[in-house]
């Protein structure tokens, strides 16, 4: 049987994967992650919902990621560059090679599409 070609991003049918920043990347707080990965395709394509509680950690992107913030407030700072505050309704792309920090001020939930 072939999988349907239309897939709703419905997290009710997916168990969240718990997570946290690696200890060597943690800057402050005790952030916890939950990830509902609703799509995973050969070739390194992922889509779903990610949520993080307050805290700050270093980020290094090898992948391309589209993000749409659903709720909360975070500050994403690029190393040697600008700090940007993102909140519900904001959409952006983080490209491979982006290095900096992600600080969650209010528990943040985003939709994502990642291409490795």
TrEMBL record:
CDD domains attached to this UniProt entry: cupin_TM1112-like
Region (Disordered) location: 1-26
The record, for Gene3D superfamilies, names:
Jelly Rolls
Q: In this protein, which residues make up the domain named (S)-ureidoglycine aminohydrolase cupin?
A: 40-112
Q: Which domain of life is it from?
A: Bacteria
Classification via PANTHER family:
(S)-UREIDOGLYCINE AMINOHYDROLASE CUPIN DOMAIN-CONTAINING PROTEIN, CYTOPLASMIC PROTEIN-RELATED
**Name of this protein:** (S)-ureidoglycine aminohydrolase cupin domain-containing protein
State the organism of origin.
Mesorhizobium prunaredense
């Amino acid at each position: 049987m072939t999988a349907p070609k239309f897939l709703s991003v419905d997290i009710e049918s997916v168990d969240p994967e718990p997570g946290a920043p690696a200890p060597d990347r943690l800057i402050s707080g005790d952030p916890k992650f939950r990830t509902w990965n609703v799509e995973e395709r050969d070739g390194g394509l992922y889509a779903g919902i990610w949520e993080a509680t307050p805290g700050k950690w270093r980020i290094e992107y090898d992948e391309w990621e589209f993000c749409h913030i659903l709720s909360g407030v975070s500050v994403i700072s690029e190393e040697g560059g600008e700090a940007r505050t993102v909140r519900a309704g904001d959409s952006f792309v983080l490209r491979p090679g982006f290095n900096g920090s992600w600080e969650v001020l209010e528990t943040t939930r985003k939709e994502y599409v990642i291409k490795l």
